[in-house]
Specification:
The chain is an alpha/beta fold. Helix content is 53%, strand content 12%. Helix 6 packs across helix 8. The chain is elongated, with a radius of gyration of 28 Å. It has 3 domains: 108 residues, Conserved hypothetical protein from pyrococcus furiosus pfu- 392566-001, ParB domain (Alpha-Beta Complex), CATH 3.90.1530; 50 residues, no CATH class; 53 residues, no CATH class.
């Protein structure tokens, strides 16, 4: 079977696959170990080690089985990418899903691009290849971005260039990692969408973030309703800053809002010193007062 090398790898990944920046001694040593570097070769699957820099943490079992069945019938269309790790030994750079599916299909050999790459280049290749394929969840993308910044010494602008995303997109992904762990887990598990997450990261207080998250889960709020809720909470926060006295905490504000909903009218909590305060319930007419009193079992 003839495999043709694809060129649509993206500027970042394509540049990383160029080994011209490697030290001469390293490139020469690898070239002596295997004359097939840079070409497509068949390598034994049991000689391929998994990529220690792999950003993906989950692989869908059903999707792997479907790919495995396809490989069993038609063969592997797109080669994996590996680097020489030693004589008759390779380390996976990209294509772990294809490698796993090929093992399930019972293949003993697999087509592979054999590349030269140091650890940093290997990390960048693995991260960029996965990000560009858009097969990571949002938290995995965020963690990948953070690793590239920390381990590859990249600035956010440089990172954006490597993965073909603007700086604001990179920043929004990185901000997901500042959300409370329970919210990050829900994003990872796709219980809430990236749209919900974008609304949540615009809220600075973690208690407020958790309250909004609980409302999303409990009431199945749409992204638009979450955005409305965020605006309401932020407006309340601004009003509190403007007030010189009688400001109440978010928890008390939640009680005030719940009471207003219960009585279908405006309710105000007024706090004094030493935990003292009062509740003011507005009514619009005698009938409205009667309605409220009946609700209070007056």
């Amino acid at each position: 079977m003839i495999y043709q090398k694809k060129t649509g790898l993206g500027r970042g990944l394509k540049a990383l696959l160029d080994d011209s920046d490697l030290p001469d001694s390293e490139r020469h040593q690898l070239s002596n170990d295997n004359s097939s570097l840079g070409s497509i070769s068949f390598v034994r699957i049991d000689q391929v080690q998994v990529n220690p820099f792999q950003p993906r943490t989950e692989f869908d079992a059903e999707a792997l089985k479907e790919l495995s069945d396809s490989i069993r019938l038609q063969g592997l269309i797109q080669p994996i990418t590996v680097r020489q790790a030693g004589q008759n030994s390779y380390q996976l750079i990209s294509g772990e899903r294809r490698l796993r599916a090929s093992k399930l299909a019972g293949l003993t050999e697999i087509p592979a691009y054999v590349r030269t790459a140091n650890d940093q280049q290997m990390l960048e290749m693995a991260l960029i290849e996965n990000i560009q394929r858009e097969n990571l969840n949002a938290i995995e993308v965020a963690l990948s971005f953070q690793r590239m910044i920390d381990e590859c010494n990249l600035k956010q602008e440089e990172l954006g260039d490597r993965v073909s995303k603007n700086r604001s997109t990179v920043t929004n992904y990185l901000r997901l990692l500042k959300l409370p762990p329970v919210i990050q887990a829900s994003i990872r598990d796709k219980k809430i969408s990236m749209g919900h997450a974008r609304a949540l990261i615009s809220v600075e207080d973690s208690d407020k973030q958790l309250y909004i998250y609980q409302e999303i889960i409990k009431n199945g709020l749409s992204v638009r309703k979450v955005e409305d809720l965020v605006r309401q909470i932020q407006t309340i926060g601004k009003d509190k800053k403007k007030s010189k006295s009688g400001a109440i905490s978010f928890q008390y504000m939640k009680i005030q809002d719940d009471l207003a909903s219960k009585f279908s009218t405006n309710v105000k909590l007024k706090l004094g010193d030493k935990g003292k305060g009062s509740i003011e319930i507005n009514f619009m007419s005698d009938d409205d007062l009667t309605r409220i009193l009946e609700m209070l079992d007056w």
